[in-house]
Amino acid sequence: MQDITLHTNNNIAATLVPNVFIDELMADANGEYVKIYLYLLRCMNTAEGFSISGMADKLDHTEKDVKRALNYWEKMHVLQLEYDANQQLSGICLLDSSSLEVRRAVPVTCASPAAPMAPTVSTVSGIVPAPVSQSVPAASAGTGTARRPSYTKDQMRSFQTNEATCDLFFIIERYIGHPLSATDYDTILYWYDGLHFSTDLIEYLVESCVDKGHKSLRYMDKVASSWADASITTVESAKCAANMHSQLYYGVMKAFGIHGRNLADYELKLVDKWSKTYGFDSAIIGEACKRTLQATSQPSFQYADSILENWHQNHVQKPEDIALLDSAYKRSKPTAARNVTVSRSGSNRFNNFSQRSYNYDQLEKQLLNSSAQ
Fold first, then answer.
1. For residue 241, how many other CB atoms are within 10 A of its CB?
2. What is the pLDDT of residues 132-159, one digit of tens each?
3. Which residues does 40 contact at the CB level (< 8 Å), separation at least 6?
4. How far apart are CA 142 and CA 260, in angstroms?
5. Could you tell me if residue 177 is left (phi over 0), alpha (psi between -120 and 50 degrees) or otherwise beta?
6. Which residues lie across from 69 on neighbouring strands?
7. Is the pTM of this model over 0.70?
8. Which one of 14, 56, 219, 349 has the fewest CB atoms closer than 10 angstroms to its CB?
């Protein structure tokens, strides 16, 4: 196909967009995020005041939409958000995007105007000079205390320049549908560096949790810890464990006659306790469910839990051990009650009076004497 020449005859004011943004970043970004970045570039060439609310009104977004986009571009190292002492957004620094490696580097600290009244936009990319005064340290996007220790800048640089982990961060953001926070980065790096999970295993972990409707990194972290406790280190072993638990959950639902719904969280925790803590297989758990229905005529997880707890305390490991317990229980029942007969008169209008006692021998003599006379 013949090449097409692209040109213009208009000599108008223009906004410069870095080529690396178009070539490497734009295709993967949400379209609304792209609009917000382009509007930021446009605001660099205007003397008008800038604010999050003004940008939201201009683009017909909510302020949360704008902040979400800004957080995304910060994670991509296209810009850096600056905060004041009260953790309020005070400035936006557009970083040098002349190289693709800027996305994988530790963010650069920008200088910002002193005491801004509203968020200001500055740049280190050479598009428009920015006034320079005191530096304002950038605050982390996450304000809560991380459950995992935070990594140093050198450690973070090592991970972010690693192609495998960099791609992993990008994939996880796609799965959960929003940019990763600083706490999220620490959590994921803990899986990779602390638990020694492979990138394939981490990707499967996130995928399986999202498929079940759980997009919280905190939930995924609990799953990761349980996998580590179970010595799960490969995707194959994770799939095998997941399949085993799925069969166990289905077996409990079938034994209890549960249809048309999934097990609740507390029910899942009880099944996990029976399987992992007590070490019971599906046969023993199924027997407990059966006895629960016979005793209560309903699927009571609490009643089944009491049965299984008793079996665990009595060191039951196989169905034969249950039969031995049943025999011992029958033998321990008291037998004296079967040899005692209790005579009790009913309380009614026919015998609710003092009974007479007769001497039948004396009555017989009196009857014979009266006959002889």
1. 14
2. 333 333 333 333 333 455 677 777 777 7
3. 79, 92, 94, 121
4. 40
5. left
6. none
7. no
8. 349
